[in-house]
Amino acid sequence: MSTSAPMPTGGSSGTLYGGSSGRRVTVRDIAAAKQRGERWPMLTAYDALTAKVFDDAGIPVMLVGDSAAMVVYGYDSTVPVTMDELVPLTAAVVRATSRAMIVADLPFGAYQAGPAQALDSAARFMKESRAHAIKLEGGHRTAPQVEALVNAGIPVMAHIGLTPQSVNVLGGFRVQGRSEEAAARLVDDAKELEHAGAFSVVLECVPSEVAERITASLSIPTIGIGAGPQCDAQVLVWQDMAGLTPRTAKFVKKYADLNTVIGDAAKAYAEDVVNGTFPGPEHEYH
Ligand code: KIV
């Protein structure tokens, strides 16, 4: 990350990024940020050390995304990842943080069967990982699941536009909502999800103009990823943001080049071992 990035101020600024410390960010804080017109950052996290770095950096909301399928488990899409694989990652991120709201992502197959299945899966995340909110993908068709979770006391982050779990129906990872009809459907979906009780909605890979329309028509925040600058918040997969992922989408900005940094470190270590210069005297026990 850039060393010139501003550090969170801490204390009582009342803002989401760099706001008051000593307690977790809540859905009320997020609603208040929308009222103030405050933009805020969200990142994914999948392990304790990285989550702690982001918590200390003041990132107010972290998502343990089903993108773990690809960046942690090495699958070629998010479809194969399971609850059993995501629950321990989410628990680690919750344990390592003290300020951020941690959102757990329901994987493919854990909620599509209906509200009862969604509630079972979400309850497992809340109990076993202690996540603070749940995210699930889909518009009109998952509104009943959103309503069931919210009625059970579980905050829900919705996700529309490019929904990677449906990549096989969408015919690839492509921008959604390009035609007026498709854009109107996204606006309707977003309103229905808000009505069902979602506290926020991720907009993935939609034209900026459509994201702006949705953002203006909702009282809950929109969180953009490839959805332009008018969203209330932005999210990136952290490995994309930090330049660890070798190839990324157009919407990603790399704030570091971790791929090169870690690769160079591995090569320097390997050469020291081969040359016999590591371990040095300062690394020895006598
Ligand atoms: O799984 C994930 O990381 C996500 C974000 C990209 C929004 O769904």
CATH topology of the largest domain: TIM Barrel
The low-pLDDT segments are 1-5
CATH C-level category of the largest domain: Alpha Beta
Total strand count, please? 8
| Oligomer status | single chain
What's the overall average pLDDT, rounded?
Answer: 94
Distance between the termini: 39 Å
Q: What strand line-up does the widest sheet have?
A: 1-2-3-4-5-6-7-8
Folded structure, characterized:
The chain is an alpha/beta fold. It has 2 domains: 229 residues, Phosphoenolpyruvate-binding domains (TIM Barrel, Alpha-Beta Barrel); 30 residues, no CATH class. The protein has 11 helices and 8 strands. Strands 1-2-3-4-5-6-7-8 form an 8-stranded parallel β-barrel, surrounded by 5 helices. Helix 2 links the parallel strand 1 and strand 2. The chain is globular, with a radius of gyration of 20 Å. Bound molecules: 3-methyl-2-oxobutanoic acid. 3-methyl-2-oxobutanoic acid binds next to loops.
